[in-house]
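Record pair follows.
FIRST:
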Amino acid sequence: YVFNFHFIVHKPEEEPPLKKIQKMKNLIKKNSIEYIICEAEGQKIAKTLSEETGLKILNFNTFHQVSAIDYFQAMRENLKTLKTALNCK
């Protein structure tokens, strides 16, 4: 599918260096990116980047946390997230 993805951090408890944040902001501006796709554990960093760039945050379920929804419902929600991020109909 040739997805290009960039991680802000690899572990939710990590704090990204300012240089990394600036690099992400430049990438966002250069590529007209509209969304941050984020799992629940990474919301803190995603919110900071969202506030600085105006991007919308879309949730993605990776099942790293206990969820009240079943696997198939989570995958349907993930598909909806990807469709939104990729501007699919």
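SECOND:
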Amino acid sequence: MPWRVEPEWSPESWKQRIAAQQVLYPDRLAVDTAVEKLRSLPPLVTSGEVEKLKSLIADAQEGHRFLLQGGDCAEALADCRADVIASKLKILLQMSLVLVHGLRKPVIRVGRFAGQYAKPRSSLTETRDGLTLPSYFGDLVNRVDFEAEARKPDPHLMVRGYQHAAMTLNFIRSLIDGGFADLHHPEYWDLRFMEHASLPESLRAEYQTMTRQLSEALRFMELLGEKSVDDLTRVEFFTSHEGLNLLYESAQTRRVPRREGFYNLTTHLPWVGERTRSLTGAHVEYFRGIRNPIGVKIGAKTTPADLVALLDVLNPWDEPGRIVLIHRMGASGIAQALPPLLRAVRDAAPAPSAVSEPGRGRPAQGRRVLWVCDPMHGNSLTTADGIKTRDFSQMIEEIEQAFDLHRQAGTILGGVHFELTGEDVTECIGGAGGIREADLTTNYASPCDPRLNYHQALEMAFVIARKMGNGIA
């Protein structure tokens, strides 16, 4: 597909716009030094991988695949450890297997890892006991400890973030190449989920039946001998993070040989957040010029006109696989807020520059997007003790409503987006583990937003499989 960006764009043209969530670094020279260092380092991902993910997302837009995106709300540099990385990879693999089996379609696995080191904040500062300091914007910017030196933005953390992202990616790729995600070996991706005392016996039986059926199906395919089983048993993982710190993102944005345009090579799928998607802002200016598939978070206050205008700017060619719209409305607001947006995108006139794509054609109307449900960010609550949490039942309610609303509108809900961990944390209430408000302090490890733990995440996959698919046999 021909590619041009109009009007004139460069990886740094965003600097002419107002940047929401802008970090105020006290040492300008140190910022320039860190950015130059990042520019000199090799890319974390390749343009070929980016284009592969874009083609898979294009399939999902037509209902042929399903996207599973999940991981930490904010990665910590200190969590760049083998056990933590492997646990996150395992739970995403387990969830994807449940979805593949229940939905009867391939799953695109995208981790919120190897770069999710920056977090937007509702305020630039935080006050505790009369002391006001800069807010914690993630390990890419400053440190979580509530101390003046720790909260001072440090540009060298961008270089450290890159280094830890590189180590994380290297370990993930080594695990996959070493057979970690080989479906012949369910013992590799088994977690303590199956041993949890509070796990309902019915759910335990479902999971055991599913893994047995998958193993039997693989053996059957091997006996047929008509297709390479490696094609069936090897899985791919892609990376994603919020493109919040534009200094970091633009420093690794470059041209590559034999391809048109610029690629952000810090990650496969960057996304622009609810707080930073202003049409006239720096983030949309940056995102409109990169060739990656891009995610866009949209909340209950998004208007149909603003959403279509945003698509005009970010995808004027209506390129397949380019746009992932991640709606986060909340269980109480989705029924009113989502349908107008679905209709607006479904019924919009073709993008001004839309062209035919081999094998896909040019739509008569509507825009090519992948609709994804994020049931977490719209369902946050604070307990009487001041602890931020999320209710598992509300997340389930939002997902179930989302499937129904898409079905009624004639659109496709093609993915889900979660903040989760493979660890035994107690940050969200409800689910198979029976976590109550009184249990939250047992192991609340997140510095920002509450995440699903391993058994809540897998239970969520079963709920989706039942709702969207034909159930688990």
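COMMENT: Residues 193 and 282 are 43 Å apart (CA to CA).
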